[in-house]
Structures are given as structure tokens and as C-alpha cells.
Amino acid sequence: MEEYAKIHKQFIGYNVFKALDFGIMFLLLALLTRTLSEEQFGLYSILNISIMLLISVLSLGVPEYITKKLAGVLRHKKEATIRLLLGGYLLYIVIVCFLAWAAKSLLVDALGFSGLQAVATIAIGIVATGLIVQVMQSYYRAEQKIVSAKIIESFFASLWALPVIAGLLLFGISDVTEVFLIRLAFLIPVGMIVIFLMRKLIVLRGSVYNLRPLLNAAMFGVPLSAVSISRWVITSSDRYALGLMSGAGEVAFYSIVYAILAMIGTMAGSIGLTIGPYFLAEYNKNEREKSLLLLEKILKYEAMILVPGIVGFFMLGKEILTMVSGVRYEGAVVLIPFLMVFPFFDLIKDVYANVLLVEEKTMLIAGVYVGGVIANIALNLALVHYFNGVGAALATSLTYIGLFIAFYLLSGRKISLSSKNLKLRQIVLASLLMTAVLLFLHPTTLFTKVLAISVAMITYGIGLLLFGAFTKEEKKLFFSLRSLKRVL
């Protein structure tokens, strides 16, 4: 019970900063879609996805190795080995980003941005800071310092948007290059601070001559990084296909719907990021019963956020889109039914993929994701040509459904999840109660839209309590103000 109370406290602290991320990026999304043209916002979306894809490709899976393989055993590893690993990785970041800068013309032409050399240079700088922040975040997460890891992540994930928001409000920024330039100017000192904080963990002298720790990490992490790489390939391929076949304006319409659904998925995904290290630690210590219970908790709490979030967006799609981005993006509402299931299957598949992960079947995981990437690219090429944004939405949803089915078949027989612990029936009933209330609400103004969303959330929360979705222990933890004070 004491251990789960610790998880609960870290969960609260993590989600305080996650809510901050959500609020900042939601405001940025609203301002960008209202300030930039559809073409400029579409270009912003493509560039942003390209940065995240490049970070995943260049990371060598080292962050995944630190988080997954060293969780629960990090302090027992030889300190010199860890320091050599981090030192070698820092040298690698410097070298690979220099090579990327030298080859930026080829990269830009390959992505179809031949006139954006300056943005390419800025993007490489952002990639370098992202790689540095990512490895520090993984180190803290492996030590189960979840809140500290989240604080570091927030600087790269959302806090950079604050000066961009100020520029949009005060100076009317209308060019995507200025957005990324401000972002880099904020992240450079962040990267320097992270290196300073890591100075006692990094050994540069000797790292060049002893690359074994880095190679060991890469051998484990590269197949596993296929998960992250494939996720970003799937996320970016629809935008590339739309940009090439339909133009940047169509990318903008697709991106706003995708972004809102992705925010819902990100909020739910915080459950796995918070409890996940504890699950891996218990499994690494052969505590299978406790690890299974934690896996069930991940699925339960993610479903508690995903199901009502998706249902609510489906019911109030037009109202939410116009509230965020104005009437210019009202036409994007047609994409919601075709795209809304992707965050659900995206996160639920990870629950079953974790089972293969702890058994170190990284090559099998990589194979499934490579198959998903191939299927996604083929679906985009086939569907976008005929159906534009709807085709991209269908390609994304079908891909994640396929990935879920594959991981379920490969690992579902190895675990036996308890329906009593998952409480899925209670979650669905609470969501239906919320839906019934939304049927009578037709908000038109900003105030009534916010009020409708608030009423829906309150109704859903009451439904969870009425239908018995929480255990007595969970109620005690969730309503403990003392726990919140200790976190803050």
C-alpha cells in the first residue's frame, strides 16, 4: 500500500506538469491556427513532425535502454559504466548533428523543402537539444524520479512555446521560420543547463576509447527504438502524403483534428509513463503478480481518460474545433469519425507490447512496427489520392488497429488481465451517462462551450463513482489532500 501511495503522489506531481504542458500547447495551437495561414500552419506541422522523427532516428535507442533495461537496477550498476555511456552518447550527439548540418541541403531536398535552408539549420539545433534533454529525462525516470523527469521534459515539450505565444500576441508573428527560431533560442540555454546538471554523470575522457557501454545500449535500444521511430513515421507519413498530393492547406485541416486527439492520448499516456517504470522494476525483480497488477492499473486509468475524451470530442467536435481555431477550420469536423479511434488503439496496444518488452523480444516488437510502417505508407499512398484528409485519417486508424491486433495475438496469451480490476464496464457506463447529458447541450458561445465541457467532465466523474469504477483504496488515495501537499 505504501508503494502504491508513492506511485500516486508521483502521478499527481507528474500530471500537474502534464496539465501545464496541455494548457500551453493548447493555447499555442489556438494562436497558430488563428494567426498563421492554412499553408503556414500546415508547413509548421510538417516541420515539427520532421524534428521529432529525426530525434527518434538519431537517438540509437539509448534513452529506451536507460529507461527499460536499467529501471530498478540503475544504482547497482558500476558508476563508471554509466558515466562512460552518457559521455559517449554526448560525443555522438555532437558528431551526428554536425554531420546532419553538413548534409542539410540533401535532407531538405529529400523532404521537399528546397527553399527552407535556414529552417533546416534551426531544426538541427532543436534536434540536438532534444537528444540531450531526452537522455537526462530517461536517467531520472529509470531512477523512478518521475516528477523530476517530467520537469526536464516540459522544457522541451511545452515551455519553449511561452516566448512564441508572447511573440504571436505582441508582435503578430506570421512566418513559421520565426516560430522555430524563437524555439531554438529558448532551448539552447536549456540544453546547456542539462549538460551542467549531468556533469558529474558524464566522462568524456575515455569515452572515445571505450565505446562498449554505448554499443551495448545501442544493441538493446536500436531494435526497441523502432517503436518510437515507427510512431513518428506513421505520424509524419500522412502529412507528407497530404502535402505532396493535396497541399499544405489540407495538412492544416488534418493536423488540427489529429493534434486535439493526440492531446487526449497524451494525457492518458501519462498513466503509462508514471506507472510504467514501476511495472518494469517489479518485472525485473521477478515480482510477476505485482507487475501484472500495475499493468492492469495502466490499462484501467488510460481507459478512464481515453473513452470519455474521444466520445466527448465526437459529440462536440464542431464546437471544440471552432472554439480552438475559429470558423476557418469548421470543415475539419468531417475527419473526426475516421480518426477518433487512433489514440485508443495506440495506447492500448502498448499495454500488450510491454509484455514482449520485458521478455526482451525487441526484435519481434521492431518487426511488428516495421510491418505497421509499411502498411501505413501503402494505405496513405492508396487512400490520400482519392479521399484527401479522410484517406489519411483512415490510413492512421487502420494502422493502429492492426498494430493492436498484432500485439494482442503475440502477447495476449501470456497474461490474464482481470476484468474485475479493469472496470471497463463501469467506464463505458459512465461515458454513456455523459453522452446522454451532451445530447441536450448545444453550446454556441465560448462560455457555453466551456460550460458544456465542464458539465460533461463532472457528469462522467459522478458516473465513475456511482457505477463503482474505483476501489476503496483508490478513493482514499485520490481524495487525499495530504498526498497532494507532499508533492507540491
Measured by DSSP, the beta-strand proportion falls in under 5%
Question: Which class of secondary structure composition applies to the elements?
Answer: mainly alpha
The residue fraction in helices comes out at over 70%
Question: Shape from CA axes?
Answer: globular
Number of helices: 21
Task: Provide the gyration radius in Å.
Answer: 22 Å
What is the averaged pLDDT score? 80
* Poorly predicted segments: 481-488
Distance between the termini: 21 Å
What is the H-and-E element order? HHHHHHHHHHHHHHHHHHHHH
Can you characterise this structure?
This protein is mostly helical. It contains 21 helices and no strands. The protein has one domain. Helix 12 runs antiparallel to helix 15. The chain starts with a helix and ends with a helix.
Features:
about 500 residues; mainly alpha; globular; disordered C terminus
Tell me briefly what this model is.
This protein has 21 helices and no strands. It is mainly alpha-helical and 488 residues long.
